[in-house]
Write a structure and sequence with these properties.
Elements (H helix, E strand, L loop, with lengths): L14 H13 L22 E2 L9 H10 L4 E10 L9 H9 L11 H4 L6 E10 L3 E7 L4 E7 L2 E6 L4 E6 L6 H6 L7 H9 L6 E11 L2 E10 L6 E9 L5 E8 L7 E9 L17 E4 L38 E3 L6 E5 L20 H6 L2 E6 L2 E7 L4 E5 L3 E5 L3 H11 L1
């Protein structure tokens, strides 16, 4: 079926309605618990098969957004495959540790702590098993070659279990209260529903929203919602969401960069059922001999509230503090609007050391040279600095210690720094 001839952009009279629609979507129940980052056995589940173009009734972009917002799926189980390709260098696992630190992960050293363990989702391909029975019971399992990591939310208890190390992380609290605060501590969304909510935060006059035909995902008929920036300078090329035609639940989320190539984020169900999971799915007792670490506060978000709805202030996703992939940037100021907005803050120190500023590593080259290899030196009215780039998020660190970060190009970062000087 050919793509529908729906509006190719938001019209002036529809802007308020679109913003209202995405605010509802941000607040809607997310029936899958997800903790940790932005961000696992490759090959355990077949590659996601999108097939056919089912013949479905025509629907407008506004109607499809409203369908997502009105979706009321409370019970499901299934398998999600997520691939993230930010273009980060392979540092032998070091990059996951750096991301965990940036995400504000706990430092108790437990391999079962969700806030640090799920940073693995920031790169590579991973397979997740998910189950949900309303806002008080969810389970997510990260599959590995010879082990499994699970997060279980059952009433007031949140458990994390790493079978490889036989370690358990446990926290308790009022599962019905403070859910937004817990969700706001989640550094990045990982299910199609959560990723869609992030993208819908940018639906305003800077965004083109259309219905781009139909598709089948995990055996379900779905509409394709296409979200594209109108502005130049963004690293986001397009966001495509496959929305279940019956339930309105996003089944697949794909973000492609302006630079082309493979998707930066591709997350979707390979199997899904909307039947009520067995109650035993959410039962957990620490295995004999397991090391149990007690947390001070619940670390798992009650995703029934969706990620930090009170902070849904619009602007581009992937940049604005805890609402996006850039993480929680305390004291940050947002420059610009829409998809080309840039977060900036002052470290109060100097910029990135150059190769000549750091010692030689035993004849193997200076550590500064190693750092230099990851960044590009730039100059502008702001002075000089270094741009560190991924396929989606770029950051400029000036020589006087200011940082500019966003889902924008290197030139856009320099322009933002020049404007802010």
């Amino acid at each position: 079926m050919a793509p529908y001839a729906s509006d190719d952009s938001t019209r002036p009279g529809e802007a308020d309605d679109l913003r209202a629609g995405r605010r509802k979507a941000v607040r809607y129940v997310v029936p899958v618990t997800v903790v940790g980052i932005a961000a696992a056995t490759i090959g355990l589940v077949p590659a996601l098969a999108d097939s056919g173009d089912p013949d479905l009734p025509k629907i407008s972009a506004q109607q499809l957004i409203e369908k997502i917002a009105a979706s009321d799926v409370q019970q499901l189980s299934g398998t999600v495959k997520i691939t993230t390709d930010l273009g980060l260098p392979d540092l032998g696992g070091l990059e996951s540790g750096l991301l965990a630190g940036a995400a504000g992960g706990a430092s108790d050293g437990s391999s079962a702590d969700p806030t640090t363990r799920l940073t693995e989702l920031a790169s590579g391909t991973h397979t997740l098993r998910v189950a949900a029975d309303g806002p008080d019971r969810q389970k997510l399992s990260l599959l590995e070659n010879a082990a499994e990591y699970s997060v279980i939310h059952n009433g007031k208890d949140v458990w994390g279990y790493d079978s490889a190390s036989n370690e358990v992380y446990h926290s308790t609290g009022d599962a019905a209260a403070g859910a937004d605060d817990r969700a706001s501590g989640t550094p990045a969304p990982t299910t199609p529903k959560e990723l869609t909510e992030e993208a819908l935060k940018a639906v305003d006059g800077t965004t083109s929203v259309t219905v781009d035909g139909t598709v089948q995902v995990a055996g379900r008929d779905a509409y394709k919602l296409l979200v594209k920036p109108k502005q130049s300078g963004s690293t986001v090329g397009a966001v495509t969401v496959a929305v279940d035609a019956k339930t309105g639940l996003p089944l697949k989320f794909t973000l492609t960069p302006t630079g082309g190539g493979a998707a930066v984020v591709d997350a979707g169900f390979t199997k899904v059922s909307f039947a009520k999971p067995a109650a035993s799915t959410f039962d957990f007792t620490p295995p004999k001999g397991a090391k149990v670490t007690e947390g001070d506060t619940p670390e798992a978000p009650d995703t029934a509230k969706g990620g930090a709805p009170d902070k849904a202030k619009g602007g581009a996703p992937f940049t604005e503090g805890a609402d996006g992939f850039a993480g929680d940037l305390d004291g940050a100021t947002v420059l610009g609007e829409g998809w080309t907005s840039v977060a900036t803050f002052d470290t109060g120190g100097k910029g990135v050391p150059s190769g000549s500023d750091l010692p030689d590593a035993g004849g193997l080259g200076g550590f500064g040279d190693f750092m230099d290899s990851f960044g590009d030196k730039v100059k502008g009215d702001f002075g000089s600095g270094t741009v560190f780039s991924t396929r989606l998020i770029n950051a400029l660190v000036t020589d006087d210690g200011k940082v500019y970060v966003g889902a924008v190009t290197k030139d856009a970062l320099v322009k933002a720094a020049d404007t802010a000087r």
